[in-house]
Specification:
There is one protein chain. By secondary structure, the chain is of the alpha/beta class. Helix content is 30%, strand content 26%. The chain folds into 2 domains: 4-215, P-loop containing nucleotide triphosphate hydrolases (Rossmann fold), CATH 3.40.50.300; 226-299, RRM (RNA recognition motif) domain (Alpha-Beta Plaits, 2-Layer Sandwich), CATH 3.30.70. It has helices spanning 48-55, 76-79, 97-107, 115-125, 131-134, 142-153, 172-187, 199-205, 248-257, 277-289, 303-311, and strands spanning 4-15, 20-32, 37-41, 63-68, 82-85, 160-164, 191-195, 208-213, 216-222, 231-237, 261-266, 269-274, 294-299. A hairpin with a 4-residue loop joins β1 and β2 (20-32). α3 packs across α4 (115-125).
């Protein structure tokens, strides 16, 4: 059986001198097919990092079962095809970036014959080729550390890649680079598990997303399903047509005829409520037919922003305290340097 299967996963921690048991995960069940990009979102303290720790075999659940390609997460057969980029990177700062990758290439048991070429290729993919790769890691910025950690996680072409806030501290160019790399991985049928607060990046990369709160998976959404959801659409005209040549009353009538609703008009922009993609298309057709030079049409919030706000009640009030359910870090190495014997990651 390929892919990741999670059944009835429950994990608790002991907190305080009184030994209070705090639930970090509660009866979590997921089925992630091989080759899917799967996102995990939720408020702080929701249990997301605990879930990653269990999937990686760093944490032992109280009950439930995890199988990756039919094996336990800590099985060496799984470790050998797994890459991992943790949220908190602690690297060997005295090494150069190139030496760091060569060292982990050797730890992973990969062929020495292709080591130099594969290390050079990894540095090139993450934008650290040339002098940047020869620089000592202590001189790296936060964004460069994230790039190096991702390069190390991808050594050996893993089939499963676990990423915990991969774009944290990365500049806009790095964010674009990460998104491109993740798209390339999807084309190679790599299964990507992405935990991130950057909802726009998750929506661009992932096929499905789980919303976690209080240790419970409250929703699993297919990102493409946003086409079936109502949303507010912002229309910008290329000139002052909106509200002048086409009056507010005319805009309201055009919207009603297209099955939409005019929310407000502030030339050269107007905002409309549409039911779905088909409704947005009808509205745009009506506006253009009426002589409105539409320059831009954008939703005011993404699918995942809507999911997050709806599931969280518009705020993080439902999040567990930072000392509670999801706040405890996995009791395992949190550095990209950790690699089990024989692992390619």
């Amino acid at each position: 059986m390929s892919g990741i299967v999670v059944e009835g996963l429950t994990k608790t921690y002991t907190r305080g001198l009184a030994g209070e048991r705090v639930r970090a995960l509660v009866n979590v069940s997921l089925n992630i097919p091989s080759g899917e990009a799967f996102g995990i979102i939720g408020p702080n303290g929701a249990g997301k990092t605990t879930l990653l720790g269990c999937l990686l075999g760093f944490l032992r659940p109280d009950s439930g079962r995890i199988a990756i390609d039919g094996h336990a997460p800590d099985d060496l057969a799984v470790r050998s095809v797994t890459g991992y980029l943790p949220e908190r990177l602690v690297l060997d700062r005295w090494m150069s970036g190139r030496d760091f990758l060569a060292y982990h290439h050797a730890l992973a048991g990969l062929s020495p014959a292709g080591r130099a070429a594969e290390v050079d290729g990894a540095l090139e993919r993450v934008g650290l080729a040339g002098e940047a790769g020869d620089r000592t890691i202590r001189r790296y910025s936060r964004g460069m550390l994230q790039r190096l950690g991702l390069a190390q996680a991808m050594l050996g072409r893993p089939r499963y890649l676990f990423l915990d806030e991969p774009a944290s501290g990365v500049d806009p160019a790095g964010v674009v680079l990460f998104r491109r790399l993740l798209s390339d991985l999807k084309q190679r049928d790599v299964t990507v598990i992405l935990n991130s607060h950057q909802l726009d990046q998750v929506e661009r990369v992932c096929d499905r997303v789980a919303f976690v709160r209080g240790g419970v998976v409250e929703a699993v959404e297919t990102v493409a399903a946003g086409a079936t959801h109502a949303r507010r659409l912002r229309i910008r005209a290329a000139d002052a047509t909106l509200g002048t040549r086409v009056s507010r009353e005319q805009l309201a009538a055009l919207a009603t005829g297209a099955g939409a609703t005019l929310h407000d008009c502030n030339p050269p922009e107007a905002r409309f409520a549409v039911a779905d993609d088909a409704g947005a298309a009808r509205l745009l057709q009506a506006l253009i037919a009426a002589g409105v030079p539409v320059a831009e049409a954008t939703p005011e919030e993404s699918k995942l922003e809507r999911l997050f706000l709806e599931a969280a009640g518009g705020a993080e009030a439902g999040a567990a305290p930072e000392t509670g359910a999801g706040a405890a870090p996995p009791p395992a190495p949190n550095t990209a340097s950790y690699r089990p014997p024989g692992s390619a990651s």
